[in-house]
Task: structure prediction
Amino acid sequence: MSKLESISRRNLLIGATALAAGSSVMADTTHNHDMGSTGLIDTTFDCLKKGQACVDHCIEAFKNGDTSLAACADMSQEMLAICSATSKFASFKSKHLKALAAVCAEVCKDCEKECRKHEDKHTSCKECADACAACIKECQKVI
Result:
């Protein structure tokens, strides 16, 4: 597989994820208004984008034999999962959003802490950590 094919597949996956997440945002928004979910949706989407870039960077490091970013990749994967769920719950203003936002904030704190360890050497880690910090603030507003 050529590098171009790999990049195309990765971009396709990222685009498909964004499309799926975006579709959920267009879901039912007829109940529980004013829960502050718009900011949370925006920050979880930013975490998804920056977190995926961080994971992609970690994978490239792994391919070159550098496993120093293993914990960063693990935490970013957890963050991606919770932010995806949180964005969906926020989009339809679920009655369970507060509980999920609390978990999201905790996972983002862990991810931010791990990414901060690498931010001086890896831009994608810094951007992911910054996105997590912003998401934590938005989660706190909902909690």
